Amino acid sequence: MSDPKTTRAAVAQLYNTYPFPPDPLSDDVPPGHNWRWHWSSAYSFCLGQKPDRQDIRILDAGCGTGSGTDYLIHLNPEAEIVAIDLSEKALDVARERCRRSGVLENRSKSVNFIKLNLEDAEELPGQFDLINCVGVLHHLPDPLKGIKAISTKLAPGGLLHIFVYAELGRWEISLMQRAISLLQGEKRGDYRDGVQVGRQLFDSLPENNRIVKREKERWALENQRDASFADMYVHPQEIDYNIETLFELIEASGLEFVGFSNPGYWKLERLIGKYPQLMERAKDLSEKERYRLIELLDPDISHYEFFLGRSPLPKADWSRDDKILAAIPERNPCLSGWPSRNIFNQEYQLTSLSEAEFQFLKKCDLGRSVKDILTEVSLDLAGVRSLHSKHLVMLAPG
């Protein structure tokens, strides 16, 4: 499908048939958090310090049925938020989701849902401090045009959060997509028929079939819903990336690559650290070559999630003792299980605190400096830096 207008119409038809994501509506605020959608947590992760203001503008570029928008509204109560999508049916669900959850109540800043193609984002007035674009660019007829469009709307010092598919971890999905398309023939574009064909194929194939095994291991739970199955297997437009093509996309944005939001995956040491001589061989590789080596050696990756930014990006340096002593610490709001010495960090990973760390975190929301707090707890600066590196505490310049 080469004509962009035809492609967009086909994608809109899919999401009008199966609004996505099919998360159930709730009469309560969204549970837990996603730190990537929390302005302070995301800013601290990217730049090492807490942002100096909360009254920002956020764009949810391709909001679908509003599951992410619901979190963006809930986690950023002082922000003005605009959510766009090409599917009117999905937008209807998004509006209802956010109305029912109660996140729209008692807000001083506006929330607007607008039917708009992502490539036309330049039509939106003003710029945005945080742009969220999850699961959208890879479904555009021209992702380069799409990323350029939203990049123009990013304010200086702003962050753009992106999620796109990775080809290596979606190899079996790609095979099933092509098989369904072949069997549909002239009925391509009938998404309910495509779901039926796909369901029958999975039911027909032997249990030890590689595509079936992958589905059961990774996707079966979410794909019980037809909307999820359709989005994965009968989508009319999908582009999967590898590191090389991903960075072509990033370069087209004209923005700075800040980093992946799952940095643990991108540590080469976890794969070849057993042999120092291999690490020595890898030291002269470029950053992109190291990333490529990692995904080749661990090809389960099904998507890339990362941040871009527009300069100036004030990245904090806490290596000087006087600077960190003067800093004002704040406990990361995206922690679960607090107050306890056993908490879940912003990635919902169990983290055990020493008694000194626990006592330090207890005093972090009083507007006092690191220096003042350290006079009352038995923690040193190395311990403070460790809490900061683990994203358990955010620091603001004092």
Description:
By secondary structure, the protein is an alpha/beta fold. It folds into 3 domains: 4-167 and 240-309, Rossmann fold (3-Layer(aba) Sandwich); 168-233; 321-396. 41% of the residues lie in helices and 15% in strands. It has helices spanning 4-17, 39-47, 67-75, 88-101, 143-151, 171-184, 191-204, 210-219, 226-233, 243-253, 269-272, 276-282, 287-297, 321-326, 355-362, 370-374, 381-389, and strands at 57-61, 80-85, 111-115, 128-134, 154-165, 256-260, 303-309, 328-331, 342-344, 350-352, 393-396. The strands form 3 sheets. The protein has a 7-stranded mixed sheet, sandwiched between helices. It has a two-stranded antiparallel sheet with strand order 8-11. A hairpin with a 5-residue loop joins strand 9 and strand 10 (350-352). The longest helix is centred in the first third of the chain and has 14 residues, at 4-17. It starts with a helix and ends with a strand.
Question: Can you tell me the residue ranges where pLDDT is under 50 for at least 5 consecutive residues?
Answer: none
Total domain modules: 3
H/E topology pattern: HHEHEHEEHEHHHHHEHHHEHEEEHHHE
Mean pLDDT reading: 97
Question: Structural class, please?
Answer: alpha/beta
List keywords for this structure.
two-stranded antiparallel sheet, seven-stranded mixed β-sheet, 17 helices, single chain, alpha/beta, 398 residues, Rossmann fold, 3 domains
